[in-house]
Amino acid sequence: MRLVGYHAAPIPAAETGILGGWLLASSGQELPDGITTVVPNGGEALTGSAAGTEVTISGRALRVPWARVAQRIVVPLVIEEQTVIASVDGAQCDIEPMTNMAGEPRDTVTFENVRVPLALAAPGVDLEAFRFRGALSRAALMAGAIEKMSQLTVSYTNDRVQFGRPVAKFQAVQQHLVWGAQDAALARMVAETAAREATRGFAQFEIAAAKLVANQAAARATKACHQAHGAMGMTQEYPLHHLSRRLWSWRKEYGGDAEWSKWLGKIAVSQGADQLYPLITGGSAALN
Length: 288
Description:
The protein has 8 helices and 9 strands. It is an alpha+beta fold. The longest helix has 33 residues, at 127-159.
């Protein structure tokens, strides 16, 4: 996932594999050969009802990634206190094409009494787990994009000559390069740590921290890298904007700064003063 962000690849890799594929597999449903996407807010704006072996879905979902080209749209819902995973054929919905700041598809999908087979999620797979998995996917994407943005900035400032020497030799510019490199290393570290802990089991603390850190790093690094590029960084032909606009879009998805700061703050307060340091050093393993 980090490499997808590194190359600013315009593909629904997170939706098809990490999110949609995971939800379908967890509910015992067949994975399609084509593109799969997910309703990012876990069906919060949708209503669902179960009758026999079918689920009926109605409502309007906003900012659904790549819906217009998806073979299946996966909708996680809570119906009668059970997590239901609905696999919807895109042809059953009304899809209004929309885009995010980076020009990636973030479509509006309207469901009007859409009926699909009833499929229950496996234990441990629910809307909260989906939200954290989505946050992890975005943290990994952002880590790759910040890394590439930093490298691009170092390369450009060494090639750009002003007053008889590369602008990278000027101390004021070097400060921007350091900020970009620091945030690239920080974002990659937290994303890799969260992914490693997630493969071991419970990793909510690490994922929440990774998403918050990546969000903040994206804001700082974008500012530093565009400042070092000057006007060149704003041109349509130059690749910097493919990275920075994606970063500003991804940082809002699956939880922004305020949401994850509040979540981490509540966890820290609930643990108490004596458990704060063990929480910081031990992460999710230290949660009571």
